[in-house]
Design a protein that fits this description.
Chain lengths: 456, 264
């Protein structure tokens, strides 16, 4: 109990000073009561864990929002997925007498943290979004992550909800030998050809042979099979049909559900599919799933869409790994598009722009559906140079230093070509661009309203 | 198949790739390809044996102190081979950590010395309590102005020709006013960003040297370096306006820059 009081006291003190209390109270409380997580675990009825490399924050928020419509739910603050963040989430839902205000928790858990808390909580469901290889995986980090997930799963009796399209998730499912539900995208939406997008060959975790793909979505997600053994993509129980603004959830013997995507992009379609599948397994019907999606407010700069004269989708990039997933997401979007890239080099962006050369802009160069590029920001010219060396013909690159002007020019030319705009920018360009695009979207709405009024 | 082929070795990309050496390799390969010259890049990881006789150009990049120590240990086994190859004129481009490894040793802040290849009369010391030398940098060299970013704790002292004179930034030790080294066909520098894309004349000088070493004609037909020129001028005017533009008179890309209008 002492840990709880101290934790709550710290939360209260931080709040009084208007400070962020998403992790620190839990950290202090755990110092006083190291077994705090287990203490909370005894007082909860069920815990759903969301883990994986990409998309766990969004998936957790979506699932918690859906569950919230059935009963009160404890969930951790965006991205506070280490032990202290989880302890803080519990503290916030506990009275001073130590009574928990909810019986169900939906938690985002970091892959490395998971084994440390797995046997302390009544975990009934584990959702793994994907296990991605990234820049840093030069020293077998990926194998370490998979082992940690496997260790954590073995410490629980939980059912699994896994991404069927990810061979690494499939491997986890096969090894865990327990009730497992798979979700995946509809076969006919997989892209064929463009094999070069599969940068690093994926290898069968059974026999080590290189996997072959009949189609893919992005990264290692696709219709994989091993030519040497019987390892292959399972048939998913939950199938998603992604069409830009909506995602159809298809299940056997149940009518299809048409879900409105609260945020754009193929990788968000995976998040919506993961959350909806998890909600289904947890016993939710269509109502709360729709309501949960409608409640969701996407953070700025994550495939954030604006209804401007030509629609603009905005993405923040900070480092090569994050940049690669944004580049993959944009090239995975169907149809032609115009791309704007704003790069600043102020302190908050990082003054050294070397990282541009580690990010996979070659994917942009290979994507024939990109009609043209505009580079912007204080390092607009460096970005243009990066694209040139990636293999983009310089006649397709325009340099417009001011980001607002660049965005305006992009919308103007995209409008005439009837294509959407995909914008990428670094941190110090984000808020100004969000502000600018919000104003432009409002202007567009007004113009459309006037147009409708005049024709009626 | 092209008549001229260049074998480029990228040493220990698995350990030394802190400052986007990939950009340097890409620049070398593309600038050859655009001229119809084939480039073969040998990625030599710490599992492989470097075969210096098979390469026409060696690139040694930068890494963290810990990684540099590991690489230092691998390279120690090939010290004599390196010394002989360099004496024979093997072109080597060494950046940041790789530059430090060319010397006798790199002394860490705790006093420990990481032994280097010892192919140059040079040593590096991190000193104690000294600030890291970080920021944009421009130097005047025989290839025009070379510019980029530097970020190093080590202070390098050597008795060879420098690569250039510091116009903006810190250079080898923050005091001497010189940056990098140029000895035989070896270039060492703290400049990354990466180094080559925005310094095309320097990139071409390295390529020409490598072609000659490989027994080919070092002739390189000029490329349209308009984007490079734009990036150079924008970077100087926005980030190092103190670098007098008159320094750019020797800069072969100046004319391009003047005639290339930024599309708007
Ligand atoms: Zn196999």
């Amino acid at each position: 109990m002492l840990g709880i009081w101290i934790g709550k006291l710290v939360t209260w003190l931080l709040r009084m000073r208007g400070m962020d209390a998403t992790s620190f109270p839990g950290k202090i409380a755990l110092k006083v009561s190291p077994r705090l997580i287990a203490w909370f675990g005894k007082r909860l009825e069920r815990v759903i864990v969301v883990t994986g490399t990409n998309g766990k924050t969004t998936t957790t928020s979506l699932l918690a929002a859906m569950m919230q419509h059935e009963e009160p739910v404890i969930t951790n603050h965006k991205g506070a997925n280490l032990v202290q963040g989880i302890a803080t989430a519990f503290l916030q839902h506990t009275s001073w007498t130590g009574r928990l205000r909810a019986k169900t928790a939906v938690l985002e858990v970091d892959e490395a943290t998971f084994p440390r808390i797995a046997d302390s909580l009544p975990i009934v469901l584990i959702i793994v979004t994907n296990v991605f290889r990234d820049q840093l995986d030069r020293y077998g980090e990926l194998d370490v992550t998979v082992e940690k997930l496997f260790t954590a799963i073995r410490k629980t009796d939980a059912c699994l909800v896994l991404n069927a399209d990810d061979p690494i998730c499939r491997n986890l499912g096969l090894r865990a030998s327990r009730k497992t539900f798979y979700y995946g995208m509809s076969r006919d939406t997989a892209r064929t050809g463009l094999r070069r997008q599969m940068r690093d060959g994926q290898f069968c975790m059974n026999c080590g042979h290189e996997l072959t793909y009949d189609g893919f979505w992005y990264g290692q997600l696709g219709l994989y099979r091993c030519p040497a053994c019987d390892f292959s993509r399972p048939h998913p129980e939950f199938i998603g049909v992604y069409r830009g603004k909506s995602l159809t959830l298809r299940e056997q013997e149940v009518p299809d559900i048409e879900l409105t995507m609260p945020v754009q992009g193929l990788y968000n379609a995976y998040n919506v599919l993961a959350a909806a599948s998890g909600a289904r397994v947890a016993g939710l019907w269509a109502g709360p799933i729709h309501e949960g999606l409608a409640d969701y407010n996407p953070p700025d700069g994550r495939m954030q869409t604006f209804d401007t004269a030509a629609p603009v989708t905005l993405n923040l990039v900070k480092n090569p790994t994050g940049c690669d997933s944004v580049i993959q997401a944009i090239t995975s979007e169907p149809g032609q598009k115009l791309v704007v890239i704003g790069i600043n080099d102020l302190a908050a962006d990082g003054r050294d722009v070397s990282w541009l050369w580690d990010a996979d802009f070659e994917l942009f160069a290979e994507d024939e559906e990109i009609v043209s590029f505009i580079t912007s920001g204080f390092r607009a010219e460096d970005m243009a140079l990066r694209l040139k060396y990636a293999g983009v013909d310089t006649s397709r690159i325009r340099i417009i230093e001011d980001m607002d002007e660049a965005v305006a020019a992009a919308i103007e030319s995209a409008k005439h070509q009837h294509v959407p705009v995909f914008a990428i920018c670094t941190y110090t360009l984000l808020h100004k661009t969000v502000h600018n695009l919000t104003a432009k979207a409002r202007e567009n709405e007004r113009a459309n309203a006037e147009y409708r009024a005049s024709v009626s | 198949m092209s008549e001229r082929t260049l074998n480029i070795a990228h040493l220990y990309p698995d350990l030394l790739n802190l400052y986007a050496d990939r950009g340097n390799i890409l620049t070398l390969v593309q600038r050859l390809r655009w001229r119809g010259i084939e480039a073969v890049v040998h990625e030599v990881t710490h599992h492989d044996q470097p075969r210096l006789a098979a390469y026409d150009l060696v690139l040694l990049g930068g890494g963290s102190d810990r990684e540099q120590e590991i690489v230092g240990a691998y390279l120690a086994k090939h010290k004599d081979e390196f010394a002989r190859a360099i004496a024979n004129g093997l072109p080597v481009l060494a950046i940041c950590g790789g530059y430090q490894l060319l010397g006798a040793y790199y002394q860490l802040p705790d006093g420990r010395k990481i032994p280097g290849l010892d192919v140059l009369d040079m040593y590096t010391s991190a000193g104690t309590g000294l600030p890291r030398l970080i920021g944009n940098v421009a130097i005047e060299t025989e290839y025009g102005i070379v510019l980029g970013f530097e970020n190093h704790g080590g202070r390098t002292v050597h008795h060879h020709e420098p690569l250039g004179k510091v116009l903006h930034g810190h250079g080898n030790d923050g005091e001497s006013g010189f940056e990098g080294v140029h000895h035989m066909n070896v270039w060492g520098t703290y400049i990354h960003g990466p180094l080559l894309p925005k310094n095309p004349q320097f990139a071409d000088a390295v390529l020409a040297t490598a072609l000659a070493y490989a027994g080919h004609s070092p002739e390189l037909e000029p490329l349209a370096d308009d984007t490079e020129a734009l990036a150079r001028r924008a970077f100087l005017s926005r980030r190092m306006p103190d670098v007098n533009l008159s320094h750019l008179t020797n800069d072969s890309t100046t004319e391009h820059a003047k005639t290339t209008q930024q599309p708007s």
